[in-house]
């Protein structure tokens, strides 16, 4: 199973496409903040039906802390929201599907990443 990053989730409706998988609660929030308020509940319900939502549980929190320490020790900074999405994937062990190239640097630290080029 794949965990879809926000960049992919945003692109799918633009292409009229649908893809199975899961999303982080962070991706859900990032997606919904761009939806008009009067449509937000409907869109949220649809996303919750289509995708398994990965919450910020103890596994994700522990993975975040471990990965943050490793990155800090080598001088690499990743935005918190992106690091939470990455550790959601790492905790559940699916492949993170994204168009954001900065996730590539996390591959060396055990994250399974598929970078897609969006045109």
Shape: globular
The number of domains is: 1
Distance between the termini: 24 Å
CATH architecture: 3-Layer(aba) Sandwich
The total strand number stands at 5
Secondary structure category: alpha/beta
| DSSP helix fraction | 40-55%
Question: Can you describe what's shown?
Answer:
- The protein is built from 5 helices and 5 strands.
- With about 120 residues, it is of the alpha/beta class.
- It has one domain: Rossmann fold, CATH 3.40.50.1010.
- The strands form 2 sheets. A 3-stranded parallel sheet has the order 1-4-5. Strands 2-3 form a two-stranded parallel ribbon.
- Helix 4 crosses helix 5.
- It is globular, with a radius of gyration of 14 Å.
SSE topology:
Blueprint: E1 2-4, H1 6-14, E2 22-24, H2 25-32, H3 37-50, E3 52-54, H4 58-73, H5 80-92, E4 95-98, E5 113-115
Parallel strand pairs: 1-4, 2-3, 4-5
List keywords for this structure.
5 strands; alpha/beta; Rossmann fold; about 120 residues; two-stranded parallel sheet
Condensed summary:
The protein is an alpha/beta fold and 119 residues long. Helix content is 50%, strand content 13%. Strands 1-4-5 form a three-stranded parallel sheet. A two-stranded parallel sheet has the order 2-3.
